[in-house]
Structure formats: structure tokens, C-alpha cells
């Protein structure tokens, strides 16, 4: 999971939403319910994220997200909202250096 320091990875807002919900320990089905999308759509977002990062699973994704500041130790203890407020998304950086 080594990355070139000059490379930038851009995530869509929805991909960032999925990463945030994963950091809360939610399943694909729970994420889909919170985001009001189909479970298959969550899986598609994950597939796109995995391809962008050249990784293969959630553990690697959470390691990457933590190491690059997409999530932090404090956010791991927050509880996920029952309904996802699209106007109140977590603030996370989409461009990584």
C-alpha cells in the first residue's frame, strides 16, 4: 500500500461517506440504510475505492484512512447517525498528497 508522495487520489463525496460509515463499524447493509441507497451501490463505491488505492479489503482501507487523516482516533468512537444528513457530512480531505 505504498503511494508516491506526488500522487493525488480523489474520492467522490459518496465514497468519502462510505469511508466514514465504515470507520464506525457499519456493515454494507447498514451503510446503505443510512445513506438511503442500495447495498449494491455501497459495494460499488467500495470497489472504486479499492481500485483507486490498490487495496483489497476494509482493514487496508481503514489503515489507509487513519494514516492519511481521513478518519482520526476520536471519530472511531462517535456513533453513526440513524439517518445520514447530507448537509452535515463529516469534514474530510479528498485530495491526498
Please describe the biggest sheet, giving its number of strands, its sense, and whether it closes into a barrel: none
Residue fraction in strands:
under 5%
Question: What overall geometry do the principal axes of the alpha carbons give?
Answer: globular
Portion of residues within helices: 40-55%
How are the elements arranged and paired?
Layout (H helix, E strand, L loop, with lengths): L12 H11 L4 H8 L3 H15 L4 H10 L30
Helix pairs in contact: 1-3, 2-3
Provide a descriptive summary of the structure in words.
The protein is an all-alpha fold. Helix content is 45%, strand content 0%. It has four helices and no strands. It is globular.
